[in-house]
Design brief:
By secondary structure, this protein is mainly α. It has 4 helices and no strands. Helix content is 65%, strand content 0%. The N and C termini lie close together (11 Å). It has one domain.
């Protein structure tokens, strides 16, 4: 097993565990079920992400802001799958 498969597998398992954790925590609230998803902005302080506003290309700035605001489990699953694909291409 290459390191790409290991990293991809760990990221995918982490993403699934995060979905399970968020599902259980959303059912623990009284009343209606409210899904609260975490993103990089929630985990990392916004002062550390202020450099994104200084990017001069609007398309790159918009894409990086999108990446930092998508749910963290989706980011982990997609980077994990990408890592597995890279591992399949590199490993021959």
């Amino acid at each position: 097993m290459s390191k790409y498969y290991m990293i991809g597998g760990m990221l995918c398992v982490g993403g699934v565990i995060m979905v399970i954790f968020q599902a259980v925590s959303s059912m623990m609230t009284a009343g209606d079920i409210v899904w609260k998803s975490l993103s990089l902005v929630d985990v990392i302080s916004t002062e550390y992400l202020a450099w994104i506003d200084g990017i001069s290309w609007q398309s790159i700035q918009k894409n990086i802001k999108y990446i930092t605001t998508i749910p963290l489990y989706l980011l982990m699953l997609s980077v994990g799958c990408l890592s597995m694909v890279v591992g399949g291409v590199v490993d021959k």
